């Protein structure tokens, strides 16, 4: 069954020059999604894109899980005239994500605004966006929705589930919730449990949004642009590093050179001020504020040990080959945590991306990502 992509998703994807993804209804009123919170949600639609072909055994699938503000376009759809996907450089013949070999699936997460049901979707009864009435969702709920999509697509088992940041949180939950459905996992710059540092940053971002007079308790018609922009500006500081900022900006440059719709008043004196305001405005144009609140809360509640015992016991349950990649300059999900994760996983191995770009390096350092993932996939193939 194909459902329409909600208005916000349609506008935002079109603004970025992206086509409308496929959408499937995986839960409906007769069979609602039972959320971890105890609430139910229906209908639930999933926006997704696939690359390559599923083999007759249904076993050559790779699930790519996206980060906080990502979407289903991990790469440009074949033959489409649109901007590259967010992991475009990992795609192609001979690259780690080779669609001649694998059936690659990427879906927009529950609670987001790129076609999957979330706060900007229309409430089935009121016909208006859910807004603040959208229920709290967790990473496990996101994964259950992805599993329903895989069932719909006929995927029996994943050759690999992979993701960075929030994507990595989903991957860990995949290995724990549906161990029989995953043959290997790869996580990059992620967390087994959201740290107090990360929760603190998210809380400051949420308060920036909800303190904006244009937020209107979440029932805005136009985005609370200053609040959302400010949230992104703060997040962008945590996604990069002291060195990347200091190397990137020329203090003598005319900071106002780039023309854009600045959500804030006042003169911009330094290039970095202009850059951050621009990044804020870019997010206002493409991401819904209520979705930001919903997803950041889901990340804060993330804890793979919840209901499962201590961390060592929980990770010991993941028996499949597992790659854990750290980023040398990651301030948000530190490199040491990724090494620790690999040490605690029975078949874990660790690799490092050396970069000055901080947490976002998993969206930037494609040569290193290619090498690390290529090697892991080769090992998996030899072991098969
Ligand atoms: C807009 C999109 O399509 S994002 C795609 C969907 N999003 C995702 O998948 C989430 C993951 N992606 C991301 O978080 C980001 O896109 C990243 C990390 C991959 C890269 O971020 P980017 O913003 O593209 O890169 P970067 O930090 O180098 O900033 C470059 C932008 O800042 C602008 N910029 C640079 N310096 C300045 C300045 N002093 N003043 C104003 N603008 C500036 C550049 O002109 C460029 O603008 P553009 O995006 O319109 O081309
Ligand atoms: N830059 C990423 C978040 C970092 O994981 C995003 O906007 O999705």
Question: Which secondary structure elements does this structure contain, and how are they paired or packed?
Answer:
Elements: H1 7-15, E1 22-27, E2 33-34, E3 40-41, E4 44-51, E5 61-65, E6 103-107, H2 139-153, E7 158-164, H3 166-177, E8 185-188, H4 196-210, H5 225-239, H6 242-248, H7 271-286, H8 289-301, H9 311-316, E9 322-327, H10 335-344, E10 348-353, H11 366-383
Parallel strand pairs: 5-6, 5-7, 7-8, 8-9, 9-10
Antiparallel strand pairs: 1-4, 2-3, 4-6
Acetyl coenzyme *A is lined by residues 16, 67, 69-71, 86, 255, 258, 271, 274-275, 278-279, 282, 286, 360, 363.
Descriptive report:
Its EC number is 2.3.1.31. This is Homoserine O-acetyltransferase. Substrate binds at residues 232, 360. This protein is of the alpha/beta class and 384 residues long. It has eleven helices and ten strands. It has helices spanning 7-15, 139-153, 166-177, 196-210, 225-239, 242-248, 271-286, 289-301, 311-316, 335-344, 366-383; strands at residues 22-27, 33-34, 40-41, 44-51, 61-65, 103-107, 158-164, 185-188, 322-327, 348-353. Strands 1-4-6-5-7-8-9-10 form an eight-stranded mixed β-sheet, sandwiched between helices. It has a two-stranded antiparallel sheet with strand order 2-3. Helix 10 (335-344) links the parallel strand 9 and strand 10 (348-353). It is globular. The mean pLDDT is 95.
Tag the structure with descriptive keywords.
single chain, 384 residues, alpha/beta, two-stranded antiparallel ribbon, 11 helices, globular, binds acetyl coenzyme *A, binds L-homoserine
